[in-house]
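Hey, quick one: can you model this chain's 3D structure?
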Amino acid sequence: MVAGCYDTDITQINEMKTMLNGAMGSLVAKPAGESVKTILNALITSVSGLDEPSYTNDSWAAFNAAMNGAKSVRDNVGSVNDEYLGAISALNTAVSALVRDIDKTALNALIAESKGVSKGVYSDESWENFQSALKEAQAVSADENATQTKVDTAYTALYNAKARLAAPTEEDKGPVLVSKELSDVLKGVSLEVPRGCLYAVMGGNGTGKSTMLKAICHICRPYRGKVMVD
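Sure thing. Here's the predicted structure for all 230 residues.
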């Protein structure tokens, strides 16, 4: 024993240092346990499906470097516990730091185009569906946390709703509008019929008797004036 001996000379000390350094150099790191290997391998598998186009270039580059490092540790039979733990920590950190790169260009362009569509020439049902899809698309466009999948879904829904806009049904159109291009059949007519009364409409051919009754029954729709039935 050299330590604590007052009569030890420098030669003995140097010999002891050489022996100690040799012993330290012969130390062998304990191989990594199977549990930590399993954890790293499971982590690598779980993040292997991430899609590069969905993330910013910088965050993906950092993730890719951590992923390659983790695979290198996993595939090296001489890797020790600390290396496995370091790879797990680095890969988890890189995954957490991934920043999504969401492309809303096509959605915003379709929204702008859809805002210019006029209501008057489409059926009520198809118009309501279109407006609902447009409202949802606008909400997704304004959502900073929207995923690319949500953006793509909103685009598809709005595109389909716009493509399915249909001409008005007969019910949507309502009574037939008397054409403005034709001569007026009824003009200056003012009539009030109390409930329970019986009236006869008399006049020559072409004087508007049938047209007036059609207007009262909403079979045809005048382009000016009102017909009210209580």
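One thing worth noting: The mean pLDDT is 81.
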